[in-house]
Specification:
Chain lengths: 339, 339
DNA sequence: CTGAAAGCGCTTACAG
DNA sequence: CTGAAAGCGCTTACAG
């Protein structure tokens, strides 16, 4: 019922081989026959059967993306970047998201086997052991936001360190000598890098001040608790840098309850630039991550790995972040309405 | 290099036919051979070649999702619902998002042809004409949030009408006799349904009051302008219902500038329950849409359409919404901190 | 430049 | 219950 290459060949009075060559741009076809075949194929609305083609070419023209449950904005921005880049390269995108644990992620990864030419992997459950067990060595893959040092895969990270470093410096430059930090989960790669950025910026630009770190876990609630601790502190802090925006939101609430004004009494900053950041009062100074760029770069990296299987892997690449200054760290009398 | 069904057959000293039957659960195999074959296949890490299987079965076990650029949270929730349901059914998910115009959407739809067993389509660019031109009649498809009346496809909508109706009633019940409405884009299906819900609830529950509608276009900016108009009105309104949350956010800003307090002077409500809704001050009363449910239902509908090609289509199905009451419509002295 | 033929890795009537 | 064989729709050496 569906029209196949044989139908086109019959109609054009040529062999199926010629149809294949004409449609795939082989030079071994006269322009005239190519034209004729192309127009007949178009008239018949012929679409090559992708499975048949994959069977013989060993290519699916599809990239798989393995993603955990992610915050909405991050997820959609990432997919958007990946999707746009894939479209530009004529590649399809097979996604599997929402994996609660390592077993689910493993099952999803295995299920994609043979259906994709390469993989984009972003998952807290992924380590070297996991990949060895679930990803065939022959599958090109790019790891996103991973602590893994691999010679086998490309690794693409957000510049958590640089972003945190720059933000700490911004707060210090603004005259807030003592900057406290609210950390993220101990086992979280992003959190570790951000804390390191904070520590080193403090050591570099405020060598006399001591770094003050309160524990958190990226949740709003943990930010609230950290905020209460900081508000009660005997030596009041002049600036707080939370390792992510949600904790900054929680911290802000604690400060409000404690009667501390932001930014007049304390400056406050977060990390991620989630949409909420600009709508809370005061709008939150934060570090913006170029998520769509991350997705685009990742897609382009797998595409290259697929096209040139032998080439050397890049060292881990890192994507820049931007400091976004808003009212929460800007005590200059300007109104604190949404930016 | 990759292990095929022949390798398993050779190892198990049976024909490839038996391997196929054993692995696919055909009853025509002794339990003992099935066991032996299964364990050998596992040991060899055999994975059936999906293209080869698709070629013969005419099934890809894949659902395509065509999505426009969507607000982050909506997009990720929708994908999440679809993904979870697909996994439960052993189906893969091919996505194509971020289509700026009808041509891009058409190209994406055609590119998926032959790679999917069915389609989920959510796009403002899609109408009957578009589908006739770009979607083969034989492809099962479900339309999400579409005004289309189709006997060929299932249509799944959010209950915009019911949600707006319930919200209007809530505002009236709370004693705000005059409820004004900020509308969305004229050509937007959601916006139309929400406005209808507002009008009919007003007619039903406040027959003496006149419906007051200010135009908007779903942007924050348009909500801001509407808010300025309403604040200056000779007859001050007691409650404002914006057709989406972003406009409510803009309206809130205009009210703040005009010195109007929410909810003491005016109650305010939106629609969508975007994450920002609970973080602005005061937290916004709104209509929550069960987006993940929408995705799950849609996936299950295509799956059914694929399994039972002949069955009658459902009439357009509709998914319920919930009114979420927060501080912006609750002048009861409770603190207006985030809920 | 063009065609006949082999083969990619599966599934499934058809025999036995 | 099991196997030999055909065939799904393509691509690509191999001849000519």
């Amino acid at each position: 019922m569906a029209v196949t290459i044989r139908d086109v060949a019959r109609e054009a009075r040529v062999s199926v081989a010629s149809v294949s060559r004409a449609l795939n741009g082989s030079p071994a076809v006269t322009d005239e026959t190519r034209q004729r075949i192309a127009s007949i194929a178009a008239r018949l609305r012929y679409v090559p059967h992708s499975a048949a083609r994959s069977l013989i070419t060993k290519r699916t023209q599809t990239i798989g993306a393995l993603l955990p449950d992610l915050y909405g904005e991050f997820f959609s921005e990432l997919i958007r970047g990946i999707d746009l880049a894939a479209r530009a390269k004529g590649l399809h995108l097979l996604v599997s998201s929402s994996h609660g644990d390592a077993d689910e992620a493993a099952a999803a990864l295995r299920a994609m086997q043979g259906r994709v030419d390469g993989m984009l992997i972003l998952s807290p459950h992924v380590d070297a052991e996991f990949l060895r067990a679930n990803l065939p060595e022959s599958t090109p893959a790019v790891l996103l936001n991973s602590a893994l040092k691999s010679t086998q895969f490309d690794v693409l990270n957000i510049d958590n360190y640089g972003g945190a470093h720059a933000m700490t410096r911004h707060l210090l430059d603004a005259g807030h000598a003592g900057v406290a930090f609210i950390g993220g989960p101990d086992d979280n790669f992003d959190a570790q890098q951000r804390e390191r950025g904070y520590r080193e910026a403090m050591a570099a630009f405020a060598p006399k001040a001591t770094a003050k770190i309160v524990a958190g876990d990226f949740s709003e609630e943990s930010g609230y608790h950290a905020g209460r601790v900081l508000a009660k502190d005997s030596k009041p802090v002049r600036a707080v840098f939370a390792a992510n925006d949600m904790m900054a939101v929680g911290c802000l609430r604690a400060f409000a309850e404690a009667g501390l004004r932001v930014p007049q009494d304390v400056a406050l900053a977060g990390f991620d630039d989630i949409p909420i950041a600009r709508y809370i009062t005061p709008a939150l100074t934060t570090v913006r991550v170029r998520i769509a760029d991350l997705g685009r770069s990742a897609l382009e990296s797998v595409a290259t790995a697929i096209e040139k299987p032998g080439r050397a892997r890049n060292a881990a690449q890192t994507l820049a972040c931007d400091v976004v200054v808003r009212a929460s760290s800007r005590d200059d009398g300007r109104p604190t309405k949404p930016v």
